[in-house]
C-alpha cells in the first residue's frame, strides 16, 4: 500500500482551496477527496428528462397564496 500523498493533499487544500492550516488539518482525508472531486470532476451524470420529471412530481411547486 502506498503512503498517503500528504504533499499533494497539502498543495490542493492550502493552495487550490485556500484553506487555512487549521481548516485543512480539521478535514478528514475523505472530506478532502470529495472536495477534490468537486473541483476536478468525477461528478455524476447530468439529470435527464425522466429524472427531472420525477423530482418535479416529488417536490411540486406550491401555489402562491393570495394575501
| Overall shape | elongated
Gyration radius, in Å: 20 Å
Q: What's the helix count?
A: 4
Q: Share of helix among residues?
A: 55-70%
Structural class: mainly alpha
Report the strand count.
Answer: 0
When the domains are counted, the total is 1
Order of helices and strands: HHHH
Please report which band the strand proportion falls in: under 5%, 5-15%, 15-25%, 25-35%, 35-45% or over 45%: under 5%
What's the N-to-C terminus distance? 65 Å
Largest sheet: none
Low-confidence stretches: none
Mean pLDDT equals: 85
Pfam family, one: Phage_TAC_6
Organism: Devosia enhydra
Protein name: Phage tail assembly chaperone protein, TAC
Structural notes for this entry:
- 58% of the residues lie in helices and 0% in strands.
- It is mainly alpha-helical.
- It is elongated.
- InterPro entries: GTA_rcc01693, Phage_TAC_6.
- This is Phage tail assembly chaperone protein, TAC.
Please give a handful of descriptors for the protein shown.
67 residues, mainly alpha, 4 helices, GTA_rcc01693, Phage_TAC_6, Phage tail assembly chaperone protein, TAC
